[in-house]
Design brief:
binds 2-oxoglutaric acid, 9-stranded antiparallel sheet, 4-stranded mixed sheet
Length: 298
């Protein structure tokens, strides 16, 4: 869906207007290969968006695997094709709530009322295609270059199935993983074509310069800051940006970049995953474990 100027786009709990206070994300594919330009753009704007960075079939393989998991867990609506991802009535019990690991152990304190559900870690351990995506060479190569040293990924992968009406409130990732390196980069990967109706990521360009907010809200282990993106514009400035995502796209953002999502207005799960990378040499938040390094995979 390409929005016309003035179309209402709901972000978290505010109705925003396309082209007025929410704008298109601008892809930075032309910067790939120029690490200085990538770093400069990232430090100015707080995030990078690449179209078709990942192989569409690689991502599609992971999506199919997750759709099969959902089907096996009886989370999909009876009589529907699994790839339609239509939400069934018994989905709640089978998947862990945001912030919980298998058996409901807290992975991190969300401090919010997210309706989003995460695939249990143990489920993902037996996957083939998902693991291939999480460990794909292009991501490791990108971050080795970007950090200028060997990178490591978090062992924990946030693989999300967002039900109807579910959305993510405004937050910095520092409030969930701020006890180690500050240079961690989050990668948000849509596992399907996801437009604003289905619940896409929305990033506040320039919020990485909101020093006061970073040093107050962002410096504590807390949860969502709010569900009110317009108030952010009024208080701090910045520019909210989103797009219609296609499978293969990726958004990379730092720990102090405000982001949220549009609500899922459809009857289908919104599938996406978040991976985290940081320089190997930097301390890791003790709540998470190091995943593999590229040299251990390839
Ligand atoms: O997928 C979402 O709704 C939010 C993702 C997110 O907050 C994150 O990647 O930190």
């Amino acid at each position: 869906m390409i929005h016309e100027h003035g179309t209402v786009v709901r972000v978290a709990e505010d109705d925003m207007l396309w082209g007025v206070n929410v704008f298109p994300m601008v892809e930075q594919n032309h910067l790939l290969g120029d690490v200085d330009a990538l770093r400069e753009y990232f430090s100015k704007n707080g995030y990078l968006f690449f179209r078709g960075f990942l192989d569409r079939d690689l991502v599609g393989g992971a999506t199919t695997e997750l759709a099969t998991e959902l089907e096996n867990l009886n989370c999909l609506r009876n009589g529907t094709e699994k790839m339609e991802l239509k939400i069934g009535s018994s989905s709640e019990s089978a998947l862990s709530k945001e912030g919980e690991d298998f058996h409901g152990r807290a992975v991190y304190d969300t401090g919010n009322q997210s309706e989003s559900v995460l695939f249990q870690k143990e489920m993902l351990e037996d996957t083939t295609n998902c693991r291939e995506l999480f460990n794909c060479r292009s991501l490791f190569e990108f971050f080795n270059h970007f950090f200028g040293e060997e990178c490591v990924t978090f062992d924990y992968k946030w693989v999300r199935a967002v039900p109807s009406a579910g959305f993510t409130g405004l937050h910095f990732d520092s409030v969930y993983m701020g006890r180690g390196d500050t240079r961690i980069i989050s990668c948000w990967i849509p596992l399907d074509d996801i437009d604003a109706e289905q619940g896409g990521l929305v990033v506040c360009n320039g919020s990485n310069h909101f020093t006061e907010l970073i040093q107050t809200y962002g410096a504590n282990d807390s949860g969502w800051y709010s569900n009110a993106p317009i108030e952010i514009l009024e208080k701090y400035g910045g520019r909210w940006e989103t797009t219609d995502f296609l499978r293969g796209d990726i958004v990379m953002f730092g720990m102090s970049t405000l982001h949220a999502s549009t609500p899922n207005k459809t009857e289908r799960y919104r599938l996406s995953c978040d991976l985290r990378f940081q320089p190997l040499s930097e301390p890791m938040d003790p709540r998470y474990k190091k995943g593999k390094r590229a040299s251990e995979i390839f």
